[in-house]
Amino acid sequence: MADNGISRRRLIGTAGATGLALGAAGGAVGYAAAPSDAAADSAGSKAQLASLGADQVMFHGKHQPGITTPLQSRGHLIAFDLASGAGRKEAAALLRRWSATAERLMAGESADGGDTAVARDAGPSSLSVTFGFGASFFSRTGLEKQRPSALDPLPDFSSDHLDKARSNGDLWVQIGANDPLVAFHALRAIQKEAAGTARVRWQMNGFNRSPGATARPMTTRNLMGQVDGTNNPKPSEKDFDKRIFVPSDGDPSWMAGGSYVVVRRIRMLLDDWEELGTKAQEAVIGRHKSDGSPLTGGTETTEPKLDETGPDGKVVIAANAHARITRPDQNGGAAMLRRPFSYHDGFDGKGEPDAGLLFVCWQADPMRGFVPVQRKLDRGDALSEFIRHEASGLFAVPGGAGKGEYVGQRLLEG
């Protein structure tokens, strides 16, 4: 933010369209990109680096940003509880303020009034801000009749060790950007706008590999070193919208174009995991660690041969391998769009890393997306021995705001 009303965007020039092109193509949301020759890879990587600050995500649209937006390198997840005495009227005013602030910051402009100038000199940097409502929001605002049945509590799972203080919440905000200062600036602006209306219940900070760090776009890796996101649904698939977004005639009507997000803080027991050799790790996952290809051969995008057996007569991809259990065709077609961030919050009292995955997944109905897959994992995923679910949240994320509207307006003014 420059002084005298000069925007971040003007300081670096007009924002380019690279981010929009990637978003339309499915680009870096964990999807595998087609390989190209080395020269093209190098040129593409340099162009990507040159445009990082200029990339802009649109605030207005049929869907909120931050769902199919290419995965950013920095993220903040925040849940708020409404303050005592705050109800529907105050919540509507807050969402109006939040939406106006998000629109300005995503365009690379200053926040209104008292801008901190944390992101001075930076462009939009693919900033996206996404808003959602927790189940408790509806009772707090007298809107119980508008609460979707899809927000019914998630079932308990054996791997759950949930901290209630870091779970759920009345309101949820997801912030992503390809510059840490741009992301932090948005976080501070959102927190400041909430003063007097809502207080922070919990906050989680995450990261991913930076765009341009690899010679060509690649599926991201998690902190276990595994390629993570190979089987993500792709916008190019004909049933993508049906799986991820609430239809226009969905119930309730205010959720048309929206989606349901499940957020899980999944701690990875890295000391235990790293004691395994590479072959043992690959057996747990069912894929090669080097390139994400199935143990039955091919490339990352090759379909695993689940019936293939080895010289010992046993299936190559074990019955409890993570890659087998999570396949949609092994779960009645259940699918969700995973859009996670890794996290590292230092070390615990035993000296073990407090690190893992901020699992964020999107679906039109969590009972047909997250729940059946997690139930299957709960019954015998080899990876379960090395992870622990420590926090959880489920939120209704309404459709995008039209020009002149704010997010959630159809609910709060309907």
Automatic annotation (TrEMBL):
Keyword Iron: yes
Chain segments carrying region Disordered: 207-241, 287-311
InterPro entries, sorted: Dimeric_a/b-barrel (IPR011008), Dyp_perox_C (IPR048328), Dyp_perox_N (IPR048327), Dyp_peroxidase (IPR006314), EfeB/EfeN (IPR006313), TAT_signal (IPR006311)
Cofactor: binding comment: Binds 1 heme b (iron(II)-protoporphyrin IX) group non-covalently per subunit.
PROSITE patterns in the record: DYP_PEROXIDASE, TAT
Domain Dyp-type peroxidase N-terminal: 64-208
Compositionally biased spans, kind Polar residues: 217-234
Subcellular location as annotated: Cell envelope
Top-level taxon in the UniProt lineage: Bacteria
Domain Dyp-type peroxidase C-terminal span(s) in chain numbering: 219-400
SUPFAM superfamilies, A to Z: Dimeric alpha+beta barrel (SSF54909)
Catalysis: reaction(s): heme b + 2 H(+) = protoporphyrin IX + Fe(2+)
Cofactor: heme b
EC number: 1.11.1.-
Keywords: Heme, Iron, Lyase, Metal-binding, Oxidoreductase, Peroxidase, Signal
Keyword presence, Heme: yes
Main localization (coarse): other
Protein family membership: Belongs to the DyP-type peroxidase family.
PANTHER family, per the entry: DEFERROCHELATASE, DEFERROCHELATASE/PEROXIDASE
Function field: Involved in the recovery of exogenous heme iron. Extracts iron from heme while preserving the protoporphyrin ring intact.
UniProt-recorded name of the protein: Deferrochelatase
Naturally occurring in which organism (per UniProt): Streptomyces atriruber
Highest classification ranks of the organism: Bacteria, Bacillati, Actinomycetota, Actinomycetes, Kitasatosporales
Gene this chain is encoded by: efeB
